[in-house]
Amino acid sequence: MTANPLDDRLRDLVGDRTAKVLGEHLDLHTTGDLLHHYPRRYAERGELTRLADLPVDEYVTVVAQIAKADKRTYGGGKGVRLEVVVTDGSGSLTLVFFSKAAHAHAHRLIPGRRGMFSGKVSVFNRVRQLAHPDYQLLDAEDGTEAREAVDAFANRLIPLYPACKQITSWRIAQAVDTALNSLAATGWAGVGEPLPDQLRSHRGLAPLPEALEKIHRPRSKQDIAQARHRLKWDEAFVLQVALARRRAADSALPAVPRRPAADGLLTAFDAKLPFTLTEGQQAVSAEIFADLAAEHPMHRLLQGEVGSGKTMVALRAMLGVVDAGGQAALLAPTEVLAQQHHRSVTEMMGDLAEAGMLGGSDTGTKVVLLTGSMGTAARRAALLDLVTGEAGIVIGTHALIEDKVQFHDLGLVVVDEQHRFGVEQRDALRGKGKQPPHLLVMTATPIPRTVAMTVFGDLDTSVLDQLPAGRSPIASHVVPAAEKPHFLARAWERVREEVGNGHQAYVVCPRIGDAEDPAETAGGGRAGAGKKGGKAAEQPDDEERRPPLAVTDVADQLASGPLSGLRVQVLHGRMAPDAKDEVMRGFAAGEVDVLVATTVIEVGVNVPNATAMVIMDADRFGVSQLHQLRGRVGRGSAPGLCLLVSEAPEASPARARLDAVAGTLDGFALSEIDLQQRREGDVLGQAQSGARSSLRVLAVMDDRDVIEAAREEATALVDADPELTGHPDLRSALQSLLDADREEFLDKG
Asked: Residue 740, exposed/middle/buried by CB under 10 A (0-12, 13-18, 19+)?
């Protein structure tokens, strides 16, 4: 088989020096990597880029005309500075060169000339500038070399590539040209075609060489559209083939059917319920029990709006498996959540969770907790209950995955908040079954359908979008603390009023405090509000923004100020597990009025008496995260109140995000807003574990049709040829997408 030239190392093509920069700074190592580093946009010959919109503190490439150039001295005449002002009609940008560079560039950078200029945008004396930028002139006033540059750009669009300080857009373009010329000289010999011929013909897709040529050297906008459409299909199809192979491998595995006994534990539990399941809960439960009765493992994703009753559905599934003689394990991402689940499950089950104990039910089982911080004796007892089968249900953290944890007969794995775990982690737990156990993964983060197909494409999906009876509405409001300080004062009055009415409140902060790094914020440290009116979340000059508010500081200020006299406690991830559990138990028991916490309370925490939440520096949190946090209130019969405190200016994108959250309780609508504001790679995150790089041209929200069609085509192809023996180029593309461990995982079974 001919070696694919796209796999050739870049140093053989562009030399060691350029290859080193491309590899270290842009993660481009092969010819294929380089050719799949697509232009982020295109400038037309003569088109002027809007300088007025340049982002500060980012590396940019602009096409502009020199308006004026002046040499100035400084330092008493000892230093020389060249200032060149370029313009595009919408704004201007100053280029500055110092010392020798000022003399070196002065004869080329003269008014009237045009060029591409690249560098990091900074601000000096309120003027945007590029210091010592790289540039390439685009006119014919520099002899033969410049005329050739003009000819190269004539009659076509100029690709502008994602670049960095170490290598400019046009140097990347030169490397791409070298690669394309080299491949064209051989007629693209040996270059594989990942899409089957029949699929390309049926869908009217260009061959890969043509698509790569057109995306890097387009002669029209139609060329770009054709190339992008073809390359989107590559990404969607290869990813969907990987997921289809995983589904096929999973469905080929044997599993023990788990059918609940007619008058067993599940029947006894249902008889104790003081309420009726919603229609949605009943429908999803029917889907799950049908899967559990099959002879191949269930692989189901359960999406549920905040408070829709996912835990009840999962618990009934676990009880059904215990009824059938198996064990069930619930994997939670944090100790706080694991402890909360253990408390709520044992409370819901009552004496059915006390098998073997005085007063326990004869039809019951043991429910044990297993976390990393448990004492040796308690841990040993839990492990013994698991290996003997005494415990039908275990709830725990990553501690469940450890080698020493063994089960008598693991029949069902439930993974809560799936986005917190990689594929390998959930499979490590599944591997503890004598035969592959059934799998139910849950998320309270609503996921648009195309994202579910892309990220969780190996799972069947169920959706709970109906709130149980008795759940109350949540009113949400933005509190503009900088513009209207009296609004914040009123927020604390509202908290006192809720407590005065016998309820409780949360106050959420992005940071813990003390010696913690201020950069460790909930939103990654870039979405902050500034002092005295604040900077918009998107502005980068971090020096001018105060650190995000901290739990320890805010709790002290509230306890001695606006909430004095109330019982205020703190909760955060650096506390000892026993201390966290004690605080949560006290809050759940009504012994704490106000809980000042980090996002440790984001999921799973259920205190129906908590009716108010104040989120400080709310613009530092993501849209979906704010929706999750808000879901902690309004869980009882009294209405909920969520106040989003921010110093972001009224017209800023950060405030627009907060207004969107305040404006709807529809998590699916918010998830689409969230997705539109994030890079595709962030969306895929760890869930698509093993993917070496994020999607480049495929947008999971905009390319719904491509993703759905690619899923159909991929499923049909894998059904007909599971090992891809008739599609060697597709198999190679799959291996490029997935690392060795992931490929081995796909092949198992």
From this structure: exposed
Please give the distance of CA 309 from its chain centroid, rounded to a whole number: 24
The 10 Å Cβ neighbour count of residue 425 is 19
Asked if residue 308 has pLDDT above 80, the reply is no
* Residue 428: per-residue pLDDT: 81
Write out 240-267 in H/E/C secondary structure. Answer: HHHHHHHHHHHHHCCCCCCCCCCCCHHH
Q: Alpha-carbon distance 429 to 262, whole Å?
A: 29
Q: 520 pLDDT band (50/70/90 cuts)?
A: very low
Q: At what angle do helices 221-252 and 728-737 cross, to 10 degrees?
A: 90
**pLDDT value at residue 328:** 96
H or E element at residue 675: helix 667-676
Tens of pLDDT, residues 449-496: 767 777 677 788 888 877 666 677 889 999 999 889 999 999 999 999
- Please name the residues in contact with 169: beta carbons below 8 A apart, sequence gap of 6 or more: 61, 116, 118, 159, 160, 161, 163
Q: What mean pLDDT, rounded, does the chain reach?
A: 83
DSSP 373-389: T--HHHHHHHHHHHHHT
Inter-CA distances, 83 with 79, 365, 467, Å:
13, 79, 63
Mind giving me the DSSP string for 53-122? GPPTTSEEEEEEEEEEEEEEEETTTTEEEEEEEEE-SS-EEEEEEETHHHHHHHTT--TT-EEEEEEEEE
Residues with Cβ within 8 Å of 527's Cβ and at least 6 positions away in sequence, in order, are: 521, 537, 538, 619, 620, 621, 654
Over residues 607-636, mean pLDDT: 90
Per-residue pLDDT, 536? 32
Q: Are 289 and 317 in contact (CB under 8 A)?
A: yes
Return the bridge partners of 193, or none. Answer: none
Please tell me the predicted confidence (pLDDT) of residue 686: 36
Place of tokens 């709790």: 555
Question: Which are the contacts of 655, defined by CB distance < 8 A and separation ≥ 6?
Answer: 478, 480, 619, 646, 648, 649
- Is 70 exceeded by the pLDDT of residue 16? yes
Task: Round to whole Å and give the CA distance between 504 and 588.
Answer: 9
Q: What is the DSSP letter of 698?
A: -
Model confidence over 676-721: pLDDT tens digits?
A: 665 444 444 433 333 334 578 887 777 889 999 999 999 999 999 9
Rounded to the nearest angstrom, the gap between the alpha carbon of residue 748 and the centroid of all alpha carbons in its chain is 28
In angstroms and rounded to an integer, the radius of gyration of the C-alpha atoms of the chain is: 30
Whose structure tokens read 């001018």? 544
Contact criterion met (CB below 8 Å) for 450 and 704:
yes
307 has pLDDT over 80 = no
Tokens 């990654």 belong to residue? 524
In the chain, the percentage of residues whose pLDDT exceeds 70 is 84
Would you say residue 378 has pLDDT above 60?
yes
* Calpha distance 573→551 (Å, rounded): 11
Checking if the pLDDT of 538 tops 50, the result is no
Strands 114-124 and 134-137: antiparallel
Q: Kindly give the pairing relationship between strand 438-443 and strand 299-304.
A: parallel
At residue 466, what is the residue type? Q
Beta bridge partners of 476: 642
Tell me the three state secondary structure of residue 689: coil
Q: Which helix (H) or strand (E) holds 706?
A: helix 704-720
Residues 385, 432: Cα–Cα separation, whole Å: 15
Name the pLDDT band for 422 (thresholds 50, 70, 90): low
Q: How far is CA 451 from CA 243, 303, 657, 701, in A?
A: 13, 12, 20, 7
pLDDT of res. 553: 93
Q: How far apart are CA 357 and CA 612, in angstroms?
A: 39
Q: Determine the Cα–Cα distance for residues 40 and 34; give it in Å rounded to an integer.
A: 14
